[in-house]
Amino acid sequence: MRGEVQYLPITPGLFTILVLLFAALIILIQLRILRYAYMRLGVGPGTALLLLFGSLVGSYFNIPITVLPAKVVRSGEIVDFFGMRYVVPLVTEWPGTVLAVNVGGAIIPTMMSTYLVLRYQLWVKAAIATIAIAFIIHMMATPVQGVGIAVPVFVPVVATAILAFLLSREYAAPLAYIGGSMGTLIGADLLNLDKIGGLGAPVASIGGAGTFDGIFLTGILAVLLAGLASPSRPREVW
């Protein structure tokens, strides 16, 4: 069962698009075009690339937490939702819905968000951003048979970029990352745990299929948009 829990949350074609987008960012950062945007996030270009690369590769890995009872478990399917195609892993003799935590879509964003809150002391504004985005995402989150909870991919990106800019021009970039990733995890996954058992998903991954694409793009686009909108102010990087 352990091997079957590990799988790409989206189809290889869509995953390739994210890889190409990541490659384009590498080129832009190496050309120093985007360097100042990531400086406003509080990390250097190298660390930003490592963060995004870790999220991309980590999307394959899930850490099982528990098993939820399920009457019927779907297997080996591709499910379409709002133009995205999510993978239902091929499983055999499955005990139910395995509730897991995705490394790239949950653990890495949570660690990075915690660092940003502590570094910039954004306790109140980060809480406001997270709660607001969680509310928006929860209203739009949709239970999808075989997958779990899914969210339209660009909702977290647009919502976090706008909200973070309204909360603080100076700290828009870190607020976008925190609000987008944590708000999506809470609003889509954690607040819908009670619905997961009846969806027939062999693996319900927090930060995995249904939300990983939005969280990953939030890490790229929302931070970039907010960073570009922030006032010019050099940041110490590591």
TrEMBL record:
Q: Extract the InterPro entries matched here.
A: DUF1614 (IPR011672)
UniProt keyword terms in alphabetical order: Membrane, Transmembrane, Transmembrane helix
Question: Is Cell membrane tagged as a keyword?
Answer: no
Q: Where are the transmembrane segments?
A: 6-29, 41-61, 94-115, 122-141, 147-167, 174-191, 203-229
Q: Name one Pfam family in it.
A: DUF1614
Tell me if Transmembrane is a UniProt keyword of this record: yes
Name used for this protein in its record: DUF1614 domain-containing protein
The source's superkingdom equals: Bacteria
